[in-house]
Design a protein that fits this description.
alpha/beta, binds pyridoxal-5'-phosphate
Length: about 475
């Protein structure tokens, strides 16, 4: 066997020789013999290709480094200093501690997921959230699926398959990725009937579109944009009598949806789920947007319609697991005590964080950050604006504060800034800011632990300027 010699002619040790080294023993204790041997083989092959020699211990160290890199989690915690609190690409809502504990418990144990403990027989997983959803939304019944996109798909497939879904042209939205209302409709088997114009839709537009083939009337919350100027839309409350006269369900896709009036927390008004339920027959909304829970999509409304939705075979394909159900239950329970909601629910806590607190944090961090980055950059505490994100209250911002980092030298400033952003993203806990005008802005609204943050920043290598 080629590997039985301790070294080959080019001064490379054999795999066996490397595996006998002390460093390889340490690596094997962590990652297992098989993985280490595989990594050693790859390292030796690379050295051989490059015509390099190496000692057995050093080869083992290289293999260990390779395994450590591969072992680092891909789904890494990051500092979201982007200024967007519910950032879809950064995982949206950070959930409450009670929700985390409930999810961990549910994962750790067998749970009565679909088991009726009173009767001692099979139960229904919808029973877990039903009463809470009724209580908090005023709806007759409710269920939950994988996300709001799934909720819309399931509702349309149940109530409008092979029929027409009437929607205003001003509400045919696309929400990032591939979620386009017209496409979801066609996948659901519903035929889209557009009414009105992009900027103005009237009650008579809906009335004229109604006919024997109509399956549903639908309202969609225009989440991520706003039509301004010469506009008209028909509120769900005004559509409801029309829908009911024709015996057609009125669906309201709220998108974010909130269970409490945000005005009481000093935030802009966003229609509550309760208000939507009062007008529409079925209301859908997300679990991980303003609600502040894990990814999920809620469907609440008329009991007869929810019953039909639950009988749709697609429901089974879109259902959620016990961990998320547990986290949702714990999250929803926090809404029973609105007085303490802002301290218990991270999403609301972050959204309502006073700008003065954030500004004080910026002033505290500024000198250390300046010192860390050196003479090549200026670091200023500044006022800025954060967004809620995930389509809630589009274009409404909240006063916030942060650090503005700018290269001193004008020449090549763009590249220097891009390099600095990249270095921040490579930190043990990556830091995500945003580049605006000629600076890197770190909005500190979502920064909780400043000591940990500065310890993390200390790992930043001397930046290139
Ligand atoms: C966000 C959103 C959706 C999709 O919800 P997910 O929970 O991301 O699947 C659907 N409709 C509207 C109006 C939205 O804002």
């Amino acid at each position: 066997m080629a590997n039985s010699q301790p070294q080959d002619r080019r001064g490379l040790p054999s795999v066996d020789a490397v595996m006998r080294s002390a460093a390889a023993q340490v690596a094997a204790a962590r990652f297992g013999h098989l993985a280490v041997a595989g990594a050693v083989r790859l390292e030796l092959a690379e050295l051989r290709r490059n015509g390099l020699a190496i000692a057995a211990d050093d080869a083992a160290a290289l293999a260990l480094a390779r395994l450590e890199t591969a072992d680092a989690p891909r789904l890494k915690p990051v500092y979201n200093l982007s200024g967007t609190v519910l950032h879809t690409n950064l995982g949206r809502a950070v959930v409450a501690e009670t929700a985390i504990a409930a999810a961990a418990d549910a994962m750790r144990h067998a749970v009565a997921l679909e088991y009726d403990l009173d009767a001692g027989r099979r139960g229904d997983r919808d029973d877990i959230l039903r009463d809470l959803l009724r209580e908090l939304t005023g709806a007759e019944d409710g269920t939950v699926v994988n996300n709001n996109a799934a909720a819309v798909l399931l509702v349309l497939n149940t109530l409008a398959k092979g029929r027409e879904a009437v929607v205003s042209r001003g509400e045919l939205i696309e929400i990032g990725g591939a979620f386009r209302m017209p496409e979801i409709m066609s996948r659901a088997g519903a035929r889209l009937v557009e009414v009105g114009t992009t900027n103005r839709t009237h009650l008579k537009d809906y009335a004229e579109a109604l006919g024997p083939k109509t399956g549903v009337l639908m309202k969609v919350h225009p989440s991520n944009y706003r039509i301004e100027g010469f506009t008209a839309e028909v509120a769900a409350a005004s559509l409801a009598p029309l829908a009911s006269r024709h015996g057609v369900p009125l669906i309201d896709d709220l998108g974010s949806g909130t269970l409490v009036d945000l005005v009481r927390f000093g935030l802009p008004h966003e229609p509550t789920v309760k208000q939507a339920v009062a007008a529409a027959d079925i209301v859908t909304f997300s679990g991980d947007k303003l609600l502040g829970g894990p990814q999920a999509g809620f469907i609440v409304g008329r009991a007869d319609l929810v019953a039909r939705i639950n009988k749709n075979p697609l429901k089974r394909a879109l259902r959620i697991d016990k961990a998320r159900l547990a986290a949702l239950e714990a999250t929803l329970k926090l809404y029973r005590d609105p007085d303490r909601l802002a301290s218990r629910l991270p999403t609301l806590r972050l959204l309502t964080r006073p700008a003065a607190d954030i500004a004080a944090l910026a002033r505290r961090l500024r000198p250390a950050m300046q010192e860390r980055l050196g003479d090549g950059f200026t670091v200023d505490a500044m006022e800025c604006e954060s967004e809620i994100g995930s389509g809630a209250l589009p274009r409404q911002t909240m006063p916030s504060a942060g650090l503005a980092i700018r290269p001193v030298a004008r020449r090549g400033a763009g590249r220097v800034l891009a390099d600095l952003s990249a270095s921040l993203r490579r930190l043990p806990t990556p830091v995500i800011g945003r580049i605006e005008n000629d600076g890197l802005i770190l909005d500190l609204r979502c920064l909780d632990d400043e000591e940990k943050f500065m310890a993390n920043i200390a790992a930043l290598g001397a930046p290139r300027t």
